[in-house]
Description:
- Keywords: Signal.
- This is C4-dicarboxylate transporter.
- One of its GO terms (biological process) is transmembrane transport.
- It comes from Noviherbaspirillum cavernae.
- The structure is a single chain.
- The chain is α/β, with parallel strands linked by helices.
- The chain folds into two domains: about 20-140 and about 235-275, 3-Layer(aba) Sandwich (D-Maltodextrin-Binding Protein, domain 2), CATH 3.40.190.170; about 145-235 and about 290-335, 3-Layer(aba) Sandwich (D-Maltodextrin-Binding Protein, domain 2).
- The protein has 13 helices and eleven strands.
- Helix 2 (about 35-50) links the parallel strand 1 and strand 2 (about 55-60).
- The longest helix is centred in the last third of the chain and has 24 residues, at about 265-285.
- It is globular, with a radius of gyration of 23 Å.
- The model is unreliable at about 1-20 (pLDDT under 50).
Amino acid sequence: MKFHRFAAIGCLAVALPVAAQEFTIKVAHFLPPAAPAQVRVLQPWCDALKKDSGSRIACQIYPAMQLGGTPAQLVDQVRNGVADVVWTAPGYSTGRFPLIEAFELPFMISDASSGSRAAWKFYQQHAQQEFSAFKMLALHVDGGQAVHTAKKEVKSVADWKGQKLRSSTRLGAKTLIALGATPVAMPPAQVTEAISKGVVDGAMGAWEVVLPTKLDEVAKLHSQPPTGQPYPSTTVLMLLMNKQKFDGMPADLKAIIDRHSGAELVERFGRVWDEEATNSRKKVLASGGQIIDFTPAEMAAMRSATASVDEDWIRQVTEKGHDGKRLAAAARTLATGQ
């Protein structure tokens, strides 16, 4: 009798289907939850993964460094498994990803869409090795950084001199120094308060962050290149996944992540950043802010003043065993579409 009862239980266990394994992905970034990065890119990306996987992939998003640490530590957080996916800037980890820095050289990027496509191609052709410890989901640019100041317009090379401005990257800081300004490093969330207290005179920043960080409330003067011309500085950004987390997923779920990442996600980032830039400019003007375009003559003067930044970067990268001159030329060729 006992044998028959155990046999029946065994048969029942074999007959039951094995439940499909579910995966929760912890996604961390450094901006507020209302920022376009989360609302228009990360959340739709997570929604698409959930839908296509039949809810086997779910996301938990942690904005504004809710997992602790600083933006510069996000790379280590994803590598060590504190987070499964992070959206951050390679430039926040100074010296760690030297090759992709080519896209942060001065006057490289004129918009987010074309710039992001170019940066993704550069990554695929020249910089994959320095991200080998991670699963790269997307790499894009912020579309270029305008100058946002509280009191003094920046229209000419002379206007940069003496200005204390927030900078997001190493090359951005070098660009400011070459123009005569003083760079100050701080997370985006601290910039508005720093300007209001007079700690800095303004910031170099992409239009996309102006409204989420309320930068427009303290900086009413905004300077930028004419439409279609490259910005003095830019920030490369990336969506990285913990490699072990990805490798541990079933093949069908990996395929879903790959299908919604890469070039398709790069396009979304670029499109959203350009749309948000247009929206930010409109709202800045509507609220009484001023937007000043650099003249062609001043653009030429600024490019001449920052030529040393290219030269230093080429020398430093070459000293590390890479062909710095070739990499800088490749970046500029891709960025201009030639």
